[in-house]
Design brief:
This protein is an alpha/beta fold and 363 residues long. 41% of the residues lie in helices and 13% in strands. The protein has 14 helices and 12 strands. The protein is globular, with a radius of gyration of 20 Å. The two termini are 20 Å apart.
């Protein structure tokens, strides 16, 4: 059996370092908002090149709290992609705003900037571009649109740790960038976790209060907040993993390049980087006309694959009331053809070769 991902192999590679810091946290006896969280926020901010990182308990809460901190609420519209994980849209609805779904670029699988302008109204307040599967959205075009129409930009970088557009890390272009540390992400914790990146001092201060019951100091509550805190153990684990992020991303890139070289002659659409970007391949997503048959054949040969995401958000039952019969033919075609092949830094050349051989054999 070839697994879709292998978190055990990642753990074994850095086991001693992880056990040491986990034991240190336990010995310290301080588990919430302590020195490990402070250090990780400082180190991840330096890695991205931003002034502030505010950690929270998930990527979903990072998006939710970012929108709330920016004052997005009832009466506002927020444009985003329909081809993304559901939490992107959930963050909009949870704040009382209306999601507006724009068409997807057929090659990058990110929101198409030209389509954003088609959905602008007097109520449009923000855009959430998603850097999907590790490929950056076209941030130059998106920021130009934002500047021209006075829009807020909230980057969903939950799948793109270390990805770059024009040499700049994604998550650093808009007012905020949101990250997830779900265990399978390029930078993953051993549980849920998330963060908001920003260069706005006041916004960072507000987010720090929001994640901790609206408290500037203990037992003083300036507004209604929530409990959304990254714990010390996860922060300590993430500090170790952050040291290896770039090297692990390079391994993902090397695996993706071999996939693309050896599958190039087949009748497949391959995830090649488009534009001045660094694609970090959170997923290696191909597109095939016979996607379901290919997935089944690979499963029969012991190769796990996944479909991210088979039903676009505008066709999900929970969102039908927001979409009024909206049709996004490019997005819908993408969702009917895509298939994610296994990719993880510990994948051996032998296993990779076996996967490639089976894909060729199954087509």
């Amino acid at each position: 059996m070839v697994p879709f991902t292998d978190l055990k192999a990642e753990y074994l590679a850095i086991r001693n370092e992880l056990l040491e810091v986990m034991e240190q946290v336990a010995k310290d006896g301080w588990f919430i908002l302590g020195r490990q969280v402070e250090a990780f926020e400082r180190e991840f901010a330096a890695y991205l090149g931003v002034r502030h990182i505010v950690t929270v308990n998930s990527g979903s809460d990072a998006l939710y709290l970012a929108l709330q901190a920016l004052g997005i609420g009832p009466g506002d519209e927020v444009i985003t992609a329909s081809h993304t994980f559901i939490s992107t849209a959930d963050a909009i609805v949870r704040n009382g705003a209306a999601p507006v779904f724009a068409e997807t670029n057929p090659y990058t699988y990110c929101i198409e900037p030209a389509e954003i302008t088609k959905h602008l109204t007097a109520r449009t307040k923000a855009v959430i571009p998603v850097h999907l599967y590790g490929h950056p959205a076209d941030m130059k075009a998106i920021m130009d649109i934002a500047s021209a129409h006075n829009l807020l930009i909230i980057e969903d970088a939950c799948q793109a740790h270390g990805a770059e557009f024009e040499g700049r890390k994604v998550g650093t272009f808009g007012q905020v960038g949101c990250f997830s540390f779900y265990p399978t992400k390029n930078l993953g914790a051993y549980g849920d976790g998330g963060a908001v990146a920003t260069n706005d001092d006041a916004l960072a201060d507000k987010l720090r209060m929001m994640r901790n019951y609206g408290q500037p100091v203990k037992y003083q509550h300036n507004f209604i907040g929530v409990n959304s805190r990254l714990d010390e153990m996860q922060a300590a684990i993430l500090r170790i993993k952050l040291k290896y992020l770039d090297a692990r991303n390079q391994k993902r890139i090397a695996i993706a390049q071999r996939y693309s070289q050896q599958l190039a002659a087949l009748n497949l659409q391959l995830p090649i980087p488009y534009g001045p970007v660094k694609h970090v391949y959170h997923q290696y997503v191909i597109a095939a006309d016979n996607r379901d048959a290919l997935k089944n054949k690979l499963a029969e040969r012991g190769i796990q694959t996944q479909i991210h995401y088979p039903i676009p958000i505008h066709r999900q039952k929970a969102y039908l009331s927001y979409c009024c019969g909206l049709k996004l033919p490019i997005t819908e075609r993408i969702c009917s053809r895509i298939l994610s092949l296994p990719i993880f830094p510990e994948m051996s050349d032998q296993i990779l070769g076996e996967i490639i051989a089976e894909v060729i054999r199954c087509l």
